[in-house]
Amino acid sequence: MYPKHTHDHDGQEEVYIVLDGEGEMTLNGETVRMDKDTWIRVGPSVPRHVEPGPGGMRMLVIGGVPGGVYTAPAPTELGGPEEMGEGVVE
Questions:
Q1: Nearest to 43 by CA among 87, 73, 7, 5
Q2: Percentage of the chain with pLDDT > 70?
Q3: Whole-number Å distance between alpha carbons of 47 and 7
Q4: Cβ atoms 16, 61 nearer than 8 A
Q5: Which of 7, 60, 66, 83 is deepest in the core (most CB within 10 A)?
Q6: Among residues 72, 71, 75, which one has the least CA distance to residue 85?
Q7: The pTM is what?
Q8: For residue 53, what is the enclosing H or E element?
């Protein structure tokens, strides 16, 4: 599950790299097809949502704030909360 979200709250940019499989990403309401070796950079204020294809999709997501120091989000820490929290768009 990858919720529709932005990073307006923290200014983080993200790069999505498909390692295997296929799917789609919706950016500002426009759907972009993703398959192996596709990479997409998304700015902080762009609403994004990923849907894997029927066979699934393995993806590497790298995020960071330009000029900032990396701080891991709580859901990625062992024992951290399971919800994404801020930035999730309903």
A1: 7
A2: 87
A3: 8
A4: yes
A5: 7
A6: 75
A7: 0.76
A8: strand 48-64
